[in-house]
Amino acid sequence: MSTPETQVAAADFAELPRTAAGGTGQLNLDLIMDVRLVLTLEVGRTRISVRNLLALTQGSVVELDKLAGEPLDVLVNGTLVAHGEVVVVNDKFGIRLLDVVSPEKRVESLKE
Predict the structure, then answer these.
(1) Nearest CA-CA partner of 82 in 36, 45, 46, 42
(2) How far apart are CA 22 and CA 24, in angstroms?
(3) CA atoms 14, 19, 22, 26: torsion sign
(4) For 92-110, how does the pLDDT look when each residue is reduced to its tens digit (9 = 90+)?
């Protein structure tokens, strides 16, 4: 049984609008400003067997791979973007950013 040949053509996308302010040629990010992202603060990680997971009860302690006092990892959609520490603001937890990963390193991590 023969199938008709499929013709493939490159997609043609319009360029993103550029800002007019000062003619700097920077991208106009207004188009994506309301996109929601998942922000995760990671204290640490561990691997645990199902047997040990099911044995956990109230008061159980799970050892993580980070030392006490180490900065938390701040991830956006699973990509590391910064390190920070927990703070309390108006009786709510928050995070103070200690250092932000450079855009180049963030892009590199997406390739992995």
Answers:
(1) 42
(2) 5
(3) negative
(4) 999 999 999 988 887 777 6
**CATH H-level superfamily of 29-111:** SpoA-like (2.30.330.10)
pTM confidence score: 0.62
The C-alpha torsion from 31 through 94 and 85 to 106, rounded to 10°, is: -10
- At 89 the pLDDT is 92
**pLDDT per residue over 43-102, tens digit each?**
999 999 999 999 999 999 999 999 988 999 999 988 899 999 999 999 999 999 999 998
> C-alpha dihedral over 105, 107, 109, 112, to 10 degrees?
-140
* Residue reference for tokens 């996109």: 35
Q: What is the per-residue burial (b if ≥16 Cβ within 10 Å, else e) of 84-112?
A: beeeeeeeeeebeeeeebeeeeeeeeeee
